[in-house]
Design a protein that fits this description.
This protein is α/β, with parallel strands linked by helices and about 160 residues long. Helices cover about 20% and strands about 30% of the residues. It has a single domain, classed as Aminopeptidase, CATH 3.40.630. α2 links the parallel β3 and β4. The longest helix has 16 residues. It binds coenzyme A (COA). The site of coenzyme A (COA) has 18 residues, from β3, α2 and α3.
Length: about 160
């Protein structure tokens, strides 16, 4: 992950990535293709800013094969079960990913200039199914710190521990 864009430009070190990915407030899901890890997604379901997708990364050899779309569909099903909003940030220079998220129904709601590195913005995107005041959670299936598998071979595997 750290050796590919956008994280090279964002100066994300391996240590920092490990720190983020072991944050217990995040749910972590891995997309498996056979024995290979094709990608992963980290979702914040904690009290602060729930529904925020912290990181989505498809392994370089698996990009452009539908893994990202499946991980995002999995995340959408997971988040909208308990929260009415999905959020994520995409870098201003990551125009390919911006098109990807737009095609999934995300809208720009803000821009954080010079947020991670000087000269580049983080663009805040949102997808919503309604206001919080009228939203009724379907259940409490997920718990903070959950780790699971988001299967990529047509199944929507949701193994959790
Ligand atoms: C961006 C990323 C998550 C997309 O996942 P992916 O598995 O490569 O994308 P998919 O194969 O599921 O593509 C889904 C759709 O998005 C489009 N798309 C995906 N990546 C795209 C890109 N970089 N530029 C333009 N379109 C893109 C595909 O054409 C496809 O459209 P279609 O369904 O109409 O054919 C993945 O390429 C990735 O991890 N990139 C590097 C890291 C990154 O940018 N992460 C996001 C940080 S916010």
């Amino acid at each position: 992950m750290c050796s590919t864009e956008p994280w090279i430009t964002l100066q994300l070190t391996f240590d920092k990535a490990m720190q983020i990915s072991t944050d217990l407030v995040l749910e972590r899901y891995v997309a498996m293709q056979g024995d290979d890890r094709a990608g992963f997604i980290l979702i914040n379901t904690g009290a602060q800013f729930p529904g925020y997708i912290k990181i989505l990364c498809v392994s370089p050899g698996f990009r452009g094969k539908g893994v990202g779309r499946k991980l995002m569909q999995f995340a959408e099903d997971r988040i909208f079960r308990d929260f009415p909003n999905m959020f994520l940030c995409v870098s201003s220079f990551n125009t390919g990913a911006q098109r990807f998220y737009k095609s999934l129904g995300f809208h720009v709601v803000g821009e954080l200039t010079d947020y991670l590195v000087e000269g580049h913005s983080e663009i805040l995107l949102r997808k919503t199914i309604g206001p919080r005041s009228t939203f009724k959670p379907a259940g409490t299936a997920g718990t903070a710190g959950t780790t699971g598998t988001a299967g990529t071979a047509g199944t929507a595997g949701t193994a959790k521990n």
